Amino acid sequence: MRIIYFDLCAIPLFLMILFICHSRKMTKGTANRLFISVVLLSLFSAVADLGMEIADNAVPLSEAGRVICTVSTYMYLTLRNANIAVLLLFLLALTKTTFLLRKWWSKIVFSLPYTMILVMLAQNPFTHNAFTVTAEAGYARGPLMLAFYGIAMVYGLGGLAYCVYCRRYLPPDKWIPLLSVYILAYIAVVIQFFRPQLLVEMFCTALGEMLIMLSIMRPEERMDSEAGMLSWASYQSDLRNILLSGEKVQIIVIRMLNCREIRNYLGEHKYNKYLSEIANDIRTIRWNRRHRIEIYFERPGTIYLITDTDETGRENVGERLLSEIGDHIKRYAKMGVRFEPRVCLIRCPEDLRKAEDIISLGHRFQTADSSGRTAFRASEIVQTKAFVIEAHIEEILDRAIKENRIVMHYQPIYDVRSGRFHSAEALARIADPEYGLLSPAIFIPAAEMEGFILPLGDAVLEQVFRFISEHDLDALGLSNIEINLSVAQCMERNLPEKILALQRKYGVDPCRINLEITETTFENISETMLENVNALSRMGYSFALDDYGIGYSSIQRVNHLPLKIIKIDKSMLEEASSASGRTILEHTMRMMQAIGKQLVAEGAETQDEIDILKKMDCDYIQGFYFSQPLPEEAFIRFMKEQNGRPGC
Ligand code: C2E
Ligand code: MG
Ligand code: MG
User: Fold this and answer.
1) Long-range pairs, 371-374, Cβ under 8 A, ≥24
2) Which amino acid residue places its CA nearest to atom 16 of ligand 1?
3) Structural domain tally of the chain?
4) Same domain, yes or no, for 327 and 279?
5) Which one is predicted more confidently, 236 or 26?
6) Is 648 inside a domain boundary?
């Protein structure tokens, strides 16, 4: 007598899993659909198993009992084997490796064992060599039944081996539950082998599938439910899996430039609704074109589409999306707001093969061209020198600091009254052995982001102190050197101590150094920063406010800080070509001088600009008109030549 209670318990468990899938809206996407198929096949297998065993327990069988037992056995063998095969497909979908089955021969290899099952079942009514159901003996196995077990083993062992291999693709909290599903199934087989009356197989399967449901199928991890798209975390992990597996894909990145403004204008709720509309619209493109496209979203406004490459020569979905998707998204003009999309097509692995590079390109491809074009191809961008440098900037910075490859250039600053060069600004460059001399416009923002700005700032301070100690500034006609301080340096607790140590080490008089702080530094002003500025002022260092005029400068703030010099940003000088720009520049300069500040105008390139500045009574001028920033030796030569002359 077989004990059917385990099967009886398994059925509600399968129903519960299906209910949870439905209520969590886990019905879209290949992996979700395959998981539902696995559970449905398990459910029907359990029902068939139950039917088979109930009928078999009632031996000798009535005619109806014989029919029920026969039909249930056919059902069970068909569905249960399909169940194990689909579980393997689910594994492939979960690890983004379904492309392994794209080749015709791999499809044949995968479906051959199951086809054999169907053939064996089809011939059984005539040969009865798989099983028989008779009124007297009930269900009895035939010699071919071993082949059924063998084939189930092929899928089962294949799945188990693949699970172990999946460690590369999945974190332990995902692949261990997957492995447990197979282990549970094998435990059930062992139990049923020794105690055939205990029908635990479907119950163990239900436990395994429940484990998958609880630990792997977590939509809250995969989905950005408010935007109705897969989450940014899913994009990163799927991308890594795809690259690991070697699958060829195309990625379309859609950056919506004005997303923050739109979000502020519409509010979070309406903005999310707006995004789900876009996602739904993209989904309709997918169905029209019969292409598998996964849609991901990164807040605040970047959509990623991953689609398979089309090697068959039919329409190239990546190219079509690239040309059409921008217009598609622009259509969403509501209440006067319109998204401004920039789209980029990345082919993997042809254009890029590292996940970090793909992610980083997705964040900044739109800066590759300032002409306002909307569609980009990664193949064009990745070959540019700027991209190659940016892609390797971390490595470059690391090397620069470790191997002391930061070199200082000095740009002379002209004193309008004396007609001589009275100071110079120290500007950092990296002399990289592979990429040449790099501009701070590239590496300073990267150093700030990657955490290199403090060691870089230290190296700059050290170099300038050394420079001052090695040269007689008075003989060169230089009163001081200006050093740029970054925001992070200004907020460093021990900045005054560091500078004091250098001062002592090189015997430099603080009046020889003028520290430049940018206007943006004061936008996030902190107590430490104020303490540092005040402490250094007391030590005798003077301060200049750099790039005045590009931020939202508060004259109040300028007045309250110990600033000796204001450096007018070159954008203000550029604006001075118009009458209104000229008035603004003139009044700004007059106001600054009225509150006792000295003025340096930055970025003077032409004689006209010099004339304007002189007429406005500017104190000092810095710009390419006089000199580019020069390497140390060239700068010394320049100063000797220029200041040696009677007037310049
Ligand atoms: P900044 O401090 O405003 O420096 C002036 C920038 O304007 C320099 O660019 C200089 O080469 C450029 N410049 C000077 N005259 C002209 C001109 O006539 N026309 C034009 N178009 N440009 C001119 P550079 O050397 O590329 O430095 C860019 C920025 O990088 C600097 O702007 C500064 O903010 C930052 N930086 C440079 N060196 C350091 C450093 O050692 N530490 C820190 N924290 N930042 C630095
Ligand atoms: Mg500066
Ligand atoms: Mg400046």
Assistant:
1) 374/326, 374/341, 374/342, 374/343
2) 603
3) 3
4) yes
5) 236
6) no
Q: Is residue 647 part of a domain?
A: no
| Pair (460, 582) in one structural domain | yes
Query: Nearest residue CA, atom 4 of ligand 1?
Result: 427
Task: State residue 648's pLDDT score.
Answer: 43
Minimum-distance ligand 1 atom for the alpha carbon of 440 = 30
For 238-253, what is each residue's pLDDT tens digit?
898 888 888 888 999 9
- Nearest-CA residue for ligand 1 atom 44 is 486
pLDDT (tens digit, 9 = 90+) per residue, 93-148? Answer: 888 787 778 788 988 999 999 999 999 999 999 999 999 998 888 888 888 888 88
Q: Is the CB of 440 under 6 A from ligand 1?
A: yes
CA distance 304 to 294: 8
Give the whole-angstrom CA distance, residue 240 versus residue 236: 6
Same-domain pairing of 421 and 382: no
Q: How far is the CA of 486 from the centre of ligand 2 (A)?
A: 10
* CA separation for the pair 374, 411 (Å, rounded): 38
For residue 399, the CA-to-ligand 3 centroid distance in Å is 27
Range of the domain at 326: 226-386
379-437: per-residue pLDDT in tens? 888 888 888 888 788 899 999 999 999 999 999 999 999 999 999 999 999 999 988 99
In a shared domain, residues 212 and 259:
no
User: At residue 217, what is the residue type?
Assistant: M
- H-helix or E-strand containing 253? strand 249-256
Residues, CB-to-ion distance under 5 Å, ligand 2 = 484, 516, 546
Tell me which of 190-199, 492-501, 628-637 is least confident: 190-199
Residue from 439, 443, 444 whose mutation best tests the ligand 1 pocket (most atoms within 8 A of CB): 444
pTM score: 0.64
Asked if residue 549 has its Cβ within 6 Å of ligand 1, the reply is no
Q: Which distant-in-sequence residues (6+ apart) come within 8 Å of 204 by Cβ?
A: 184, 185, 187, 188
